[in-house]
Amino acid sequence: MVWWVSLLFTVLSLMDYCFLDLYIWACDAAIPYLKNPNLDPEFRIYFSKEWYEALRLSVRNFFSEIFNGTRLPALLKISSEKNTANRLKKDIKQLNLKLSQLQALLEEKEAQLCRLRIHASSTLEESTRLTSHSSSTIHVEDPLISRDAQETCPPATPQLVQKALDQDFVAGPSQVQSELTMSEYFHDSNASSNLNVGDGGTGDTSQIWQDGTCSENGREGHVEDEFPEVKVDFQETFLGHTSPISRCRFSASGNNIASASLDGTVRIWTYDSSTPASRNATIYCGAEIMSLDWESKSDRLLLIGTADGGIKAWNVDAKRVVCDLSTTEAFPSVLDLKCSPVEPIFVSAAASRGHGSSYIDKLGFASLTVWNMKMWKVVTVLPLGKDPPAITSLCFNHNGKILAASATDGMIHMFAKDMAAGLQITGWPAHDSAINSILFGPDETSIFSLGSDGKASIYYLEIFEWSLQNQGHVLWSRNCSRFCDPESSKICRHEMALDANGRRLLVTSGSIRAPIYQVRGHINGLQTLPHSAAITTVDWHPTLPFFVTGSANNSVRVTSIL
């Protein structure tokens, strides 16, 4: 009986709550029908300021809890991350510009310090000479003999003494007078001069553009101040490598860049944020990378040559090695690779191992092989004679009918259009020693060579533009020894690159700046913004005024110039 009573009370209490809720809802529903609800004692509280503030605070707290407990939508994250990336890019650009300015200031101070040291050394030598001369004059026994000797051989003027001292500092006492005379002559004349190739060359007299430079025996010298800094539109630096850069190459379209380092890695990347980064990749080759070349007709394939005789074909879209070739064991160093601009073939220049300490001396004999890119098989081996010196650089002309190859003995070899026949059509000695790089000119009537000349302790690294219509005729030349010093040549092979118009020639440098020469121009050239170490590789964009430089400080930099 008791449980019936408790159940009845429970039901009645629930009905009470329901009737109360119905009453509240009925009151709320009656508000629109009242003439002045704000005056009604039942609803007056809902129109007060206190109730409004309490309601606003409650709603605000409610939505705050909702949004704090909800994850941020992905679209909003993309927008915020993009803004953050743009802000960081601007900061990096400003920091790079500030770093370049500081490096330029440091280089200027170092140059001033070097000039002061040279001046102090020359002043000390001059004072020593004057002292010794005065002491020898005092000990002369016969004044008549001394007077006759002074009248016969008058002392040099102070200006001549200073110039002779400066020249003696560079070339040694035996060459002071001849070098001084030649330098003053060409400086005053400011005109073209003739160069005889000599030393095993063709012997033809060749006219060279001098453009107001000092010349000695057909070789030029430029003053540091004659190379102003290039005007930069923008600059992007890539810091993904962990060892010095050995090669950098733009793809055929210019959208991608392949960079290789001495630790055996190749990285494919893009400098433009609007270009998809889906092709970016890191390739581990397990040996030093010595050569790179993109397929000429597309950006699909990248060829990689290594120091252990390997030739890898990397498919950029599939992100994998589609073919892994190898040279013979006798020629393990793949120094250069070059794809034909027309046919599906490429040529590899491999070398045996030498017994020297410098980069060139470590190279032995050469092997030139033509490969088919469809079957990935050897087509033919080009003839070079018995025990030929190593081939350092290759270059096809625009239609792929002529292949040029440069060797460590200073020779330029030219092969005919039919690569399968392997016919060498001509060749000539271009330099006294090794040629580092070779390029066809923009109009296909000339060819550029970067090589070393001079003998014994005198070292020159020069650029020649050779005429193909008049073999052995030099159209233009530059001496770039002060950029490409002998010490840097011991550890790397210097190279050069022509811009899309064929008017500017960019060359690697043992300094932190690289020279940009004006081909057959009336100004000496420009120099790049500084890296923090030597510039080991260069390349130009195929169509735009962009160039890429790789440095011994592990960085790769893309620069757009005005």
From TrEMBL:
Keyword entries, A-Z: Coiled coil, WD repeat
InterPro entries: ARMC9_CTLH-like_dom, WD40/YVTN_repeat-like_dom_sf, WD40_repeat_dom_sf, WD40_rpt
PANTHER family linked: OS05G0299300 PROTEIN, WD REPEAT-CONTAINING PROTEIN 91-LIKE ISOFORM X1
Origin species: Carpinus fangiana
Biased composition, class Polar residues, residue ranges: 204-216
Name listed for the protein in its UniProt record: ARMC9 CTLH-like domain-containing protein
Keyword Glycoprotein carried by entry: no
Listed PROSITE patterns: WD_REPEATS_2, WD_REPEATS_REGION
Pfam families associated with the record: CTLH_Armc9, WD40
Phylogenetic lineage: Eukaryota, Viridiplantae, Streptophyta, Embryophyta, Tracheophyta
WD-type repeats, residues: 238-279, 528-562
UniProt keyword Coiled coil, yes or no: yes
